[in-house]
C-alpha cells in the first residue's frame, strides 16, 4: 500500500491497485473485523453467565444486540462518508480504540444499564469496519486478488465469534467473565497500536464539499441492503441465542454451549473465504440467493435439534457455511461495482441494512425464547432467511435481464 496520496487514485484505476502492499495487511484487516463485533459475540457466548450473574433476562439479552446494531445502522451512512474523507488508517485506529473502550465498559458494568451503554458505543466500530477495510483493499490489492482478501478479512468477524466462544469463554471459567472481557479489551488496544504503526499516513481529510463520482453500484446497493436486512435478522438471532439454547433446552454446560458459537465461527471463516473466492463477476450475483437458501435448511435443523440434539452441531456448521458467508459475498459485489471515491459510502449503505437486521431479529426471537419456544424461534429465523433468498434471486434475475438487454 503506497502513501496516502494513492488511496483515492487506486480506486480510479479500473482493475488496478496502488502498487506495493503493507506487510500483514490482510491479517490487520481481519483483526479489525474481528474486534468490530467482538463485544456482541462475547455477550452471546457469555449469555448463560450474564443471565445468572448480572440479572439479565433473555429479552434484555436480545435488546443488547438491538442497541448495538441499531446504533451501527444509524451511524453507518455517516461512517461511510467519514472513511471516504479521512482514509482507512485513521478509521481503523479509531475502530480498534473505540472497540477497546466498549469492551472495557462491558467488563466494568455493574448491571444491565451500563451494559447497554457499552454496546451502544460498540456500534461505532461496526459502522466503520466495512467501509474502512474495503477502502484499504481497493487502494492496495490488485483486482484479481480482491475477492480472496475480502473473504479473508470478512472471516475476521467469525474469528471474533470463535475467540468469544472458545478461548475467551474458557478464560471466563478461570478468571471470571469480567476478566475475559478485559483481556479482549487489551488485545483490541494493542491492535490499534499495530494499525497506527503499520499503515502509511492518510492524505489530508477531504473537504465535505469535494464532489464524488456517481455510484456505479446503482440499484444493486438497495437490493443488497434489503437482502442484508433479512439475512442479518436471522444471523443475529443465532449469534445471540445459540449458546443459551444449548444451555437451557439441550442441557449443555456453559463451556460446551459456548463452543457452539466457536464451531459456527470456524465454519463461517471457511465459508466466507471459500465463497468469496468463488464470487467472480459472472457468478457472484447468484450466490446470495443460493447461500440464503442453504441457511433456511440450517435454521430448520436447529428446530429439529430439539428432538435430535446432535443436529445442533450440524446446524451450527451450516449457519456458518451458508448464512454467515452471504454477507461476505455481498461486500464482494459492492466492491466490484464501487465508483471512484465511493467504496466507503456504498459499503456502508449495504452494511446499514445488515445492521438493521441485527437490531430487529433478536428482540423478536427473545420474546419466544423467554417463553421457552425455541422451536418457533428457529422457524422464524428460517422465514427471515427465506425472504432474504427471495430478494436476492429477484435481484439476480433483474441483473441477468439487464445484461442481456445491454448493447454489445
Overview of the molecule:
This protein has one domain (21-204, 213-405): MFS general substrate transporter like domains (Growth Hormone, Chain: A, Up-down Bundle), CATH 1.20.1250.20. It contains 17 helices and no strands. It has helices spanning 6-12, 25-36, 38-45, 47-53, 58-86, 88-108, 112-121, 123-140, 143-165, 167-175, 177-198, 219-248, 254-278, 287-304, 311-337, 343-369, 374-405. α9 packs antiparallel against α15 and α13 runs parallel beside α15. Mean pLDDT is 84; it is low at 1-20. This is MFS transporter. It is found in: Cell membrane. Residues 25-401 form the Major facilitator superfamily (MFS) profile domain.
Features:
408 residues; Growth Hormone, Chain: A; mainly alpha; globular
Strand content: under 5%
- Ends apart, CA distance between termini: 36 Å
- Helix content range of the residues, please? over 70%
- Biggest sheet, open or closed, and with what strands and sense? none
Low-confidence stretches: 1-20
Shape, principal axes of CA atoms:
globular
The tally of structural domains comes to: 1
* Count of separate DSSP helical elements: 17
Which structural class is indicated by helix and strand composition?
Answer: mainly alpha
Quick overview of this protein structure:
It is a multi-pass membrane protein. It contains 17 helices and no strands.
Amino acid at each position: 500500500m503506497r502513501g496516502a496520496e494513492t488511496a483515492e487514485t487506486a480506486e480510479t484505476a479500473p482493475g488496478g491497485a496502488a502498487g506495493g502492499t503493507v506487510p500483514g495487511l490482510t491479517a490487520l484487516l481481519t483483526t479489525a473485523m474481528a474486534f468490530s463485533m467482538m463485544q456482541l459475540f462475547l455477550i452471546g457466548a457469555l449469555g448463560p453467565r450474564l443471565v445468572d450473574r448480572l440479572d439479565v433476562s433473555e429479552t434484555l439479552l436480545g435488546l443488547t444486540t438491538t442497541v448495538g446494531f441499531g446504533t451501527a445502522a444509524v451511524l453507518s451512512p455517516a461512517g461511510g462518508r467519514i472513511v471516504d474523507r479521512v482514509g482507512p488508517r485513521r478509521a481503523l485506529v479509531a475502530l480498534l480504540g473505540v472497540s477497546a473502550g466498549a469492551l472495557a465498559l462491558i467488563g466494568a458494568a455493574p448491571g444491565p444499564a451500563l451494559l447497554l451503554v457499552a454496546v451502544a458505543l460498540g456500534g461505532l466500530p461496526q459502522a466503520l469496519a466495512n467501509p474502512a477495510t474495503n477502502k484499504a483493499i481497493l487502494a492496495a490489492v490488485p483486482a484479481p486478488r480482491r475477492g480472496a482478501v475480502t473473504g479473508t478479512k470478512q472471516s475476521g468477524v467469525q474469528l471474533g465469534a470463535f475467540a468469544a466462544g472458545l478461548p475467551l469463554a474458557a478464560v471466563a471459567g478461570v478468571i471470571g467473565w469480567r476478566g475475559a472481557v478485559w483481556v479482549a479489551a487489551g488485545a483490541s488496544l494493542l491492535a490499534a497500536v499495530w494499525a497506527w504503526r503499520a499503515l502509511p499516513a492518510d492524505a489530508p481529510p477531504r473537504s465535505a464539499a469535494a464532489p464524488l463520482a456517481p455510484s456505479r453500484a446503482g440499484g444493486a446497493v438497495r437490493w443488497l441492503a434489503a437482502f442484508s436486512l433479512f439475512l442479518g435478522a436471522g444471523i443475529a438471532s443465532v449469534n445471540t441465542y445459540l449458546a443459551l439454547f444449548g444451555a437451557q433446552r439441550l442441557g449443555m454446560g456453559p463451556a460446551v454451549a459456548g463452543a457452539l458459537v466457536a464451531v459456527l465461527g470456524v465454519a463461517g471463516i471457511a465459508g466466507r473465504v471459500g465463497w468469496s473466492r468463488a464470487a467472480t463477476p459472472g457468478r457472484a450475483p447468484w450466490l446470495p440467493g443460493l447461500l440464503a437458501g442453504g441457511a433456511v435448511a440450517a435454521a430448520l435443523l436447529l428446530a429439529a435439534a430439539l428432538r435430535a440434539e446432535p443436529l445442533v452441531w450440524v446446524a451450527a456448521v451450516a449457519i456458518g457455511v451458508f448464512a454467515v458467508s452471504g454477507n461476505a459475498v455481498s461486500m464482494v459485489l459492492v466492491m466490484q461495482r464501487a465508483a471512484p471515491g465511493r467504496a466507503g459510502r456504498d459499503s456502508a449503505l449495504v452494511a446499514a441494512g445488515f445492521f438493521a437486521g441485527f437490531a430487529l431479529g433478536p428482540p423478536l426471537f427473545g420474546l419466544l425464547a423467554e417463553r421457552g419456544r425455541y422451536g418457533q424461534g428457529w422457524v422464524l429465523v428460517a422465514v427471515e432467511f427465506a425472504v432474504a433468498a427471495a430478494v436476492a434471486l429477484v435481484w439476480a434475475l433483474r441483473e441477468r435481464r439487464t445484461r442481456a438487454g445491454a448493447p454489445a
